[in-house]
Specification:
single chain, 112 residues, mainly alpha, 5 helices, flat
Length: 112
C-alpha cells in the first residue's frame, strides 16, 4: 500500500522541476570540468565494488557458476577500461553529449 501511494505521488511530480532539483543541477554544473575524470573513476570503482559484493554473496550461497560468471564479467569490464585508457579513447564522449543536452533543456525531462 505504501509503495502504491509513493508511486502515485511520484507520478504526479513527473515533469515538474522543484527548486531543490534545480539547485542540485546548478551545483553539479558549477563544478570544474577536471572533476569529471575523478567522478568517472569513482563511479567505476563503485560498480566494481558492487560486483565484488555480489560475487562474494554468490560464493557464500554456494552458487559457484554464478560467482564464476560474475567474476569473469567484472574482469572483462576492468580489461575494457584499461584498454580505453591505453589507447586514449574518451569513454565518456557520448555520455557528455547526453548530459549537455539534458542541461540545455528547460524544465528537466521536457523536450526529450
Amino acid at each position: 500500500m505504501v509503495a502504491a501511494v509513493f508511486l502515485v505521488l511520484a507520478a504526479r511530480h513527473a515533469g515538474d522541476v522543484t527548486a531543490s532539483e534545480r539547485a542540485l543541477l546548478d551545483l553539479f554544473n558549477s563544478l570544474p570540468g577536471g572533476l569529471v575524470r575523478l567522478g568517472r573513476g569513482l563511479y567505476r570503482l563503485g560498480a566494481l565494488w558492487a560486483v565484488g559484493l555480489v560475487v562474494v554473496a554468490a560464493l557464500v550461497g554456494r552458487r559457484w557458476r554464478l560467482a564464476r560468471d560474475l567474476l569473469l564479467s567484472a574482469l572483462n569490464a576492468v580489461q575494457r577500461d584499461v584498454a580505453q585508457v591505453l589507447v586514449s579513447v574518451e569513454p565518456g564522449a557520448v555520455w557528455s553529449s547526453v548530459v549537455c543536452r539534458i542541461v540545455n533543456v528547460e524544465g528537466m525531462g521536457s523536450g526529450m
